[in-house]
Amino acid sequence: MNYQCIICHYIYEAEKGDSEFGILPGTSFRELPDDYICPRCGIDKPGFEPLSLDVKPRKGKDPLLLMLLGLTQGLWTIAGKGSYSVTRQIGRAFLQELESKGYDFNSPELALESIKEYFVDVHNLAGSLEYTLGKDEVELCVKNCRFFSVCQQLEGKGVLISTCPYTNTSSVGLEKSTGGRYRIEKKAQDFGHRINLKKVS
After folding, report:
1. pTM of the predicted model, to two decimals?
2. Of all helices (H) and strands (E), which one includes residue 92?
3. In this predicted model, what pLDDT tens digit does every residue of 61-86 receive, in sequence order?
4. Dihedral angle computed from the Cα positions of residues 154, 10, 43 and 191, in that order, rounded to the nearest 10 degrees
5. Which domains, ranges and CATH numbers included, belong to the chain?
6. If we measure between CA atoms, which residue out of 61, 58, 165, 81 comes closest to residue 173?
7. C-alpha span between 17 and 64 (Å, rounded)
8. Rounded to an integer, what is the distance from CA 11 to the centroid of its chain?
9. What are the tens digits of pLDDT across the range 142-197?
10. SS3 assignment, position 121
11. Using CA atoms, how far apart are residues 138 and 123, in angstroms rounded to an integer?
12. Which 3 state secondary structure label does DSSP give 47?
């Protein structure tokens, strides 16, 4: 039986194995070592689901993610760095949604916990979202994000703006709770992203 990564949809096929990790053809998924990770996005073994024989494996990208990819690339082509203000609207839209559901943004801690709960616990859009809160700076670490393949493609094409919903929502959430404005600095890191939010005013 084949198994599929829930993040990037990579399919482990037992008959092919995984030459990158030295897994021989004919090795079943259950025989893989406990520390096996997805060769595409890095999620660990429990992040795979079995594909039943009567269901066709998903191919390519989810249409919604493809639409996001196309819109973002087009926006960057037209507006360049000026498109950053447009993508911040993603965070504003999520902030309104979270507030309508009763999430609390009265302090930076409550804002970040609300965002973490909404994206990770409720909607399972990332494996984890951890943060370190400083005086005028916040560091986010997002791992096993379901937007991984989109971000990877955008960054590979030189699109420097961040469409990351966690980043934009955290930024506007912090702004609401502190009254300041935050600058986003996003860096790729292993199988996730490390994001710095620095208060600038």
Report:
1. 0.69
2. helix 84-100
3. 566 666 677 777 777 777 766 556 66
4. -20
5. 2-51 (2.20.28.10), 63-199 (3.30.1380.20)
6. 165
7. 30
8. 19
9. 888 877 767 777 777 777 666 678 888 999 999 999 999 888 887 766 556 788 89
10. helix
11. 23
12. helix
